[in-house]
């Protein structure tokens, strides 16, 4: 294709997105659109899969059968969300194996929040309340994104996510209405998860390299700073209901703007964790790589069995 | 020699009386596993009463580049629609 023809196709493409038309996998798309979507959707899928690990840590130690059943269901949902997203990503012409390979080699990223440890039961409450809360804020606008398979996957994810946040808040509420020690445990979890949750909404607009292009493609409908403000505005009153304190001395309601002002985020910490130096990066990656490698014989055996069954069927028919 | 599990497309009937609708895709070694995986991945909340799976390679899809010749001829056939025909207002039940 000549450069002029590509330019022409690009203009038609941009106009379609402008009109809010969806782009489907077999439609022509600029190479950069394809690559950006592979990067973002796979990063999102990896986050769901790695995100199972910190919570999986507490399944066997959940304090009641009710909590255990809920946590199991939540972790299973995350596996499901990862799978919806991987298959959406594969429609762009990348294979599942390549995607895993990118995760395992460190080439692809996942949400840095999952590199923090879950050291008490209250962390499970805080993750549901804060981490899933931030995820919902990130994800709801994506239900309207321009790439059809991604938008459809997100509709399903968002429908299921609301239970995650409510179960987390209920855990926090129970602890906060419990003994002094239980309430202190909830406060401690908020102290540790608050700032990483704010970071989860991404670098500031000034530092974000992808925002402008992503807004144009409707891969993002709001900037990171807008999403973060929304998260803070809706979460602070929830902390008030719990009766615990958000660990930010600069946090205060601003009558004039109608939003909360908040303190400086430690972006050095964020970049350290993104670059692999968080408390659990190595542990998380090892768990994923081990699962993949130790499961190889099962995948091979299933394939060999399927082929054998198939050839039996063929032999019978002939 | 490594062989990857093939890709399957999943169709779910959400309740009797409705058609099966495309829900997404997944990997599985064979049809039976594809059905079981589809149950776990796509119907965790009573989304379905029946599942179809078909290996993706058996689906032939039209090419969006051919949309002009495939679909445009229908556009100028407005006489296929009831609103094409002008009738006086006093004609009822039509």
Automatic annotation (TrEMBL), chain B:
InterPro entries per record = PaaB, PaaB_sf
Domain of life, per lineage: Bacteria
Q: Please give the Gene3D superfamilies that the UniProt record associates with this protein.
A: Phenylacetic acid degradation B (3.10.20.520)
Protein name (Swiss-Prot/TrEMBL): 1,2-phenylacetyl-CoA epoxidase subunit B
Specify the species: Halomarinibacterium sedimenti
Q: Which gene encodes it?
A: paaB
């Amino acid at each position: 294709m000549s450069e002029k023809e590509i330019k022409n196709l690009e203009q038609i493409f941009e106009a379609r997105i402008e009109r809010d038309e969806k782009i489907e996998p077999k439609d022509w798309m600029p190479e950069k659109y394809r690559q950006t979507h592979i990067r973002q959707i796979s990063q999102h899928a990896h986050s769901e899969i790695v995100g199972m690990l910190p919570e999986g840590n507490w399944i066997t130690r959940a304090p009641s059968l009710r909590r255990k059943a809920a946590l199991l269901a939540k972790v299973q949902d995350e596996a499901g969300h990862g799978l919806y997203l991987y298959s959406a990503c594969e429609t762009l012409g990348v294979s599942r194996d390549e995607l895993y390979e990118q995760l395992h080699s460190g080439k692809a990223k996942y949400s840095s929040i999952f590199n923090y440890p879950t050291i008490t039961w209250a962390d499970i409450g805080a993750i549901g309340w804060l981490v899933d809360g931030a995820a919902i804020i990130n994800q709801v606008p994506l239900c309207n994104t321009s790439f059809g398979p991604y938008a459809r996957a997100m509709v399903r994810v968002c429908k299921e996510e609301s239970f995650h946040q409510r179960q987390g808040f209920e855990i926090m509420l129970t602890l906060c209405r419990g003994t002094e020690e239980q309430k202190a445990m909830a406060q401690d979890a908020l102290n540790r998860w608050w700032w990483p949750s704010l970071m989860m909404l991404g670098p500031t607009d000034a530092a974000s390299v992808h925002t402008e292009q992503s807004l144009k493609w409707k891969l993002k409908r709001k900037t990171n700073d807008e999403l973060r403000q929304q998260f803070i505005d809706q979460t602070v009153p929830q902390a008030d209901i719990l009766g615990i304190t958000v660990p930010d001395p600069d946090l205060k309601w601003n009558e004039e703007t109608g939003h909360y002002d908040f303190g400086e985020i430690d972006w050095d910490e964020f970049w350290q964790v993104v670059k692999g130096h968080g408390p659990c990066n190595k542990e998380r990656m090892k768990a994923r790589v081990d699962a993949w490698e130790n499961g190889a014989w099962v995948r091979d055996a299933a394939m060999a069995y399927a082929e054998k069954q198939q050839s039996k069927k063929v032999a019978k028919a002939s | 020699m490594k062989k990857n599990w093939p890709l399957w497309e999943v169709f779910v009937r959400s309740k009797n009386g409705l058609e099966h609708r495309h829900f997404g895709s997944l990997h599985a070694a064979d049809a039976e596993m594809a059905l079981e995986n589809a149950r776990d991945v796509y119907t965790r909340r009573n989304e379905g009463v029946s599942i179809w799976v078909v290996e993706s390679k058996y689906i032939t899809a039209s090419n969006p580049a051919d949309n002009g010749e495939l679909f445009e001829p229908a556009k100028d056939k407005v006489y296929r629609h009831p609103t094409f025909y002008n009738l006086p207002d006093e004609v009822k039940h039509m």
